[in-house]
């Protein structure tokens, strides 16, 4: 459900898979909803999620709607016996996320969360390099997702704390956290020291006019965040993310990892979806630089395919891991507010 950018990615991914019938689509916007349904050959399309759930024959549902609706819709779906693939971030707060995880456990259904950036071929290739020891022990990591002018529609649901839970930290930072911790082998974050800023957004600077839906018309979230994290493997992760900041034009995400035997840097152009992965190693004592060619790949197609694999297996999904990321993001917001380091228990 949801017929914005994310909902369209989900619907298209299901439509490509053999043995899957797209039984219904829900979304408030017309003619967007009808056009999507007609293009994918889906007969039933309705405005609200409540109407969608009137169909008793559903087995699974994708939740790709504003974040404040993730918990109520996901819990209602799980209570109806559906398996759920929810968009990131799992929820606005750790409490909402914990309720969703508990509802999935109680219902005995899969709760998965869409971390599509992790599915990129270059990210997967870098994970294999690290697993195979090419960087030795990674100890210092910087990860970022920076936009010069990319507030997802000033005044939409994205720019309200009540509807989104926060700004770029919870929107883009959650992707960065996910792929960084995945690449590093899932160490736990033990402490965070974060700062958030809202000077450009509150001045009306940095809109990307992308046509995001809903919202109360205001801007009461951050436009830039920086967080320093200590990890339980002894390493550190520095995370930086912006919707609006005076830097070079464009939108870019990536990661730099320094290890005892080598380093790596991945840079992805958000709009072109093209990435450059570079490894810094030594060959016979001589510094070597290797550029790795990898098609973008993965994305929501892979997320949806893996979700359905979990459903068929009767277990799996990223719900529990996503709830842990929600705790880390929440600790960052608390650290920024208190202007001090916060420990995660
Ligand atoms: N994984 C990614 O790369 C990625 C990218 C963008 C957005 N997202 C996530 O996807 C979700 C949606 O974001 P978006 O950019 O598509 O937003 P959007 O504003 O473009 O679309 C939101 C959709 O939700 C629908 N909606 C709102 N209330 C509804 C209701 N009561 N019943 C049914 N549908 C309802 C709207 O009609 C709209 O179609 C968010 O959680 C966002 O964080 C993920």
Q: Which percent bin holds the helix content?
A: 25-40%
Separation of the first and last Cα atoms: 35 Å
**Number of structurally distinct domains:** 2
CATH class of the largest domain: Alpha Beta
Measured on Cα atoms, how large is the radius of gyration?
Answer: 20 Å
How much β-strand is present in the residues? 15-25%
What small molecules are bound in this structure? Answer: nicotinamide-adenine-dinucleotide
Q: Taking strands numbered 1, 2, ... along the chain, how are they ordered across the largest sheet?
A: 13-12-11-10-6-9-8-7-14
Uncertain residue segments: none
Q: What composes the largest sheet? A: 9 strands, mixed
CATH fold name of the largest domain: Dihydrodipicolinate Reductase, domain 2
Shape: globular
CATH superfamily grouping of the largest domain:
Dihydrodipicolinate Reductase, domain 2
Compute the number of strand runs.
14
Average of the residue pLDDT scores? 96
Helix and strand succession?
Answer: HEHEHEHEHEHEHHHEHEEEEEEHHE
CATH-level-2 architecture of the largest domain: 2-Layer Sandwich
Task: Assign the structural class, choosing from mainly alpha, mainly beta, alpha/beta, alpha+beta, or little secondary structure.
Answer: alpha/beta
Put simply, the count of helices is 12
